[in-house]
Amino acid sequence: MGTGNDEHLFAWAAAHHGLYRTDDALRLGLSRRQIAYRVQQGRAERVGTSVYRVVGSAPTRDQRVLAAAWRARGVASFRTAAEMSGLIDSRGGRPHVLVVRTNGHVHDDAVVHRTQDLLPDEVTSFRRIPMTTPARTLVDIGLTITDLDLEHMLHQAIHRRLTTLEEVADTYRRISRRGRNGAGPIRDLLDAYGSGSPAESKLEVLILRILREHGVPPPVRQHPVTADGHDFRLDLAYPTHRVFLEGDGFGVHGGRTPFEDDRWRQDLLVLQGWWPIRFTWRQARERPGWCADVVVRKLAGVENDRT
Question: DSSP character for 183?
Answer without folding.
Answer: G
